[in-house]
């Protein structure tokens, strides 16, 4: 998929599906989170390393728009863009079914940053993600 800062491919596992044979809604949040972790690792960061420095990014809000369901065995890509909105990092994440390129989900994930337990602007991320922030 073009126009994204990061893309991570995955495959639906059977146990992630409900009785109707589609991915259970809660699993999409796992896919989005896993892609954010992989994105951070791809630029040399890690949540463990940040935590050891007293820096803890925390999800403050998630908005999901379900478009077309994924099914067991489907291969899909989680695509990531991000922007800065005040003190929040906003991850714009879309999931595409790789078989036909159809959009399965649109997500927006707001993340705030705690440093030693106190809310901060998360300045550490300004440098870390400098090359990845979308222009407003």
Question: Major β-sheet, in short?
Answer: 6 strands, antiparallel
The residue fraction in helices comes out at: 10-25%
Return the average pLDDT rounded to an integer: 95
Tally of separate helices = 3
3D shape: elongated
Radius of gyration: 16 Å
Q: Are there runs of 5+ residues with pLDDT below 50, and where? A: none
Report what the structure shows.
This protein has 136 residues and is of the alpha+beta class. The protein has one domain (6-128): Hotdog Thioesterase (Thiol Ester Dehydrase, Chain A, Roll), CATH 3.10.129.10. The chain has 3 helices and 6 strands, in the order E-H-H-E-E-E-E-E-H. It has helices at residues 25-42, 47-52, 123-128; strands at 6-11, 55-66, 75-85, 88-97, 103-115, 118-120. Strands 1, 2, 3, 4, 5 and 6 form a 6-stranded antiparallel beta sheet that branches. The radius of gyration is 16 Å and the shape is elongated. The two termini are 21 Å apart.
Key structural traits:
alpha+beta, Thiol Ester Dehydrase, Chain A, 6-stranded antiparallel β-sheet
């Amino acid at each position: 998929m073009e126009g994204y800062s990061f893309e991570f491919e995955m495959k639906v596992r059977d146990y992630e599906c409900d009785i109707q044979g589609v991915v259970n809604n809660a699993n999409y949040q796992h896919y989005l989170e896993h892609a954010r972790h992989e994105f951070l690792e791809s630029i040399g960061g890690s949540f463990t390393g940040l935590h050891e420095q007293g820096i803890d990014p925390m999800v403050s809000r998630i908005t999901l728009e379900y478009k077309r369901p994924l099914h067991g065995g489907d291969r899909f890509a989680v695509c990531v863009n991000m922007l800065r909105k005040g003190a929040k990092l906003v991850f714009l994440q879309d999931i595409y079914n790789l078989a036909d390129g159809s959009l399965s989900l649109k997500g927006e994930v707001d993340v705030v940053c705690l440093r030693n337990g106190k809310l901060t602007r998360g300045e550490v991320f300004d440098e870390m993600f400098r090359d990845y922030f979308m222009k407003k």
